[in-house]
Design a protein that fits this description.
Elements (H helix, E strand, L loop, with lengths): L7 H9 L11 H9 L15 E4 L4 H11 L2 E4 L1 E4 L5 E4 L7 E5 L5 H17 L4 E5 L19 H12 L2 E5 L9 H4 L4 E5 L2 H11 L4 E4 L5 H8 L5 E4 L1 E4 L5 E4 L9 E9 L3 H12 L4 E9 L5 H7 L5 E4 L7 E3 L2 H8 L8
Parallel strand pairs: 1-2, 1-5, 5-6, 6-7, 7-8, 9-10, 9-13, 13-14, 14-15, 15-16
Antiparallel strand pairs: 3-4, 11-12
Amino acid sequence: MSPKGRPEGEYRSAQREGGPIHPKGRPEGEYRSAQREGSPVRVHARLPVPGVILGFDDYAAPAERLAAQLKVRFERIAVHRFPDGESRVTVPVPLPAHVAICRSLDHPNDKLVEVLLAVATARRHGARTVSLIAPYLCYMRQDIEFTPGEAVSQRIVGRLLADHFDAVVTVDPHLHRVATLAEAVPAKFAVALSAAALFGDFMRQREPDAVLVGPDEESAQWLAAAARGHRFETVVCRKTRSGDRDVAIDMPPIRIAGRAVVLVDDMASTGATLAVAARRCLERGAATVDVLVVHGLFVGDAIADLRRAGVRHVWSTDSVLHPTNVLPLAPLLADAMSVGNGATR
């Protein structure tokens, strides 16, 4: 039997048939593509509306904001860490039939184990459906085996989450060679939302005349979506990576002298790519350079490196808690899970 109570054969065959179908007749892949292009969020699939949002201490504030947006209660999952590194996880009981666990999965190894302990315990105490709301979804970057023997973490972790959760909801997952989240996470509902529209509204208020620059080709989709409905000029650079922190940026010819520039990307880890891009912009005479990202991981000295490169402001969503957070994702997530958008209680 699968963890969700369906016969194993039936569960696997349903996933192999290609995942959920948009109720208005479009294949799920087409629906996902529309989301990644930054169109308005309208989740017509029958996502279960949770009766409670369960959260962990490390992501409690955004989870509480989401519960408030959905007008449901918020409860904390208690975690005790033993000296040997194991965790004791306690969920609040009793639980309603529909439950959502909200936790972003940056620094994922401990978090994944605790989330799996929590979902199994929630089902044992009455939850019929359990959704995972993970604004940052881990292990999505490795989608092929580059060197023989490497684990393809996207498929492994995606399958693990699909085996335990009825729905997985995330924001701008870092997908390379797969077109849809459903291919990486074959759950009944695999929902990938986009924060790009939030970017456009934010920039219209903060830097309405800025040039939006994408540091590499993969940022083109966020640039296009952020600029939609606004009059931003955009440019996409080409990146060559030689190592985790060794990158080269080739910037197309564009007049940015004396202008405000905002570097836009889905995520920042070491910040090396953004730092190189910032230097290129300043070399061309940009008046100011700011950074706006969805997922601000900012490991190690990333922020200091960006400052040294001449970056003025660094902004991010609250997908990963960080002092740079300026854009809360609760309204976006709640809109996707609200009854008015086709979700069901």
